[in-house]
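Limitations

Structures in this collection are predictions, not experimental determinations, and the ligand pose is part of the prediction. Treat each record accordingly. The example that follows, with zinc ion as the small molecule, is included so readers can see exactly what is and is not provided: the inputs are given verbatim, and the output is the predicted complex.
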Amino acid sequence: MRRKIIMWAVIFVFSISLLSGCDAQKAKEDSALYQISTLQALMVGAYDGEVTSGHMKHYGDTGLGTFDDLDGEMIVIDGKVYRASVDGSVVEVEDSETIPFANVAFLTTQEPIALSFDGGYDGLKAALDEMFPHQNVPEMFSISGTFTNIEYRSVPEQHEPFPALTEVVKHQAIFKKETISGTIIGFRFPAFFDEMNVTGYHLHFISDDRQNGGHLLDVASGQTWVLAQSLDELSLVFPDNLRDIDMSGTSDSDVKAVESK
Ligand SMILES: [Zn+2]
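Predicted complex:
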């Protein structure tokens, strides 16, 4: 009897790993966007992490988000998940770390395109819009190079009862670098994402030495190479806390206020 139970347990575990292997393969082939929860839920304080970093990695090697209790900004690059903390430190997190909100996908684009921009964050957005003019499907970007006068932020860990994100960002730490080499990772979301995410650009930054990073607030200019990935599918995770919160008070201007300078 005991042997039988063990055998079934082995078969079960094997099936689970096969399943996640298939999902990962499918996510890669279809350039699927994987999203945990909604930004609007995060806005009203849904900071409890439910999906682990290790699980999320089955669905993407590139992206951004935040961590349990809103403890820092997440940057996912080359399949590694980093936390940029409010104290300015950057560390790779354990697979057991839990996540309340994130967007990831597999970056399979091979051909980088040269991009130089100035004119600030708006200049970067305008340059990307010109290179990738479609606006109806999500696009993922990895922009590597040297940047000037870059500004990025992180947010402090929160404790229950969780305040709204509009309150938290009043206590954000802003970091500035005159010149730094690194990668800006992120997405441009279509207008119809307005009930579940930012519309337009959401970008995070991490330095080449993986010592600096955060949510991008501004950048003056850059000499870069861009890898862009057009995304074909969406996989959206509904964490348990979505069932308990009231999202009726979240406005588009609140979202813009927490995501930009
Ligand atoms: Zn962000």
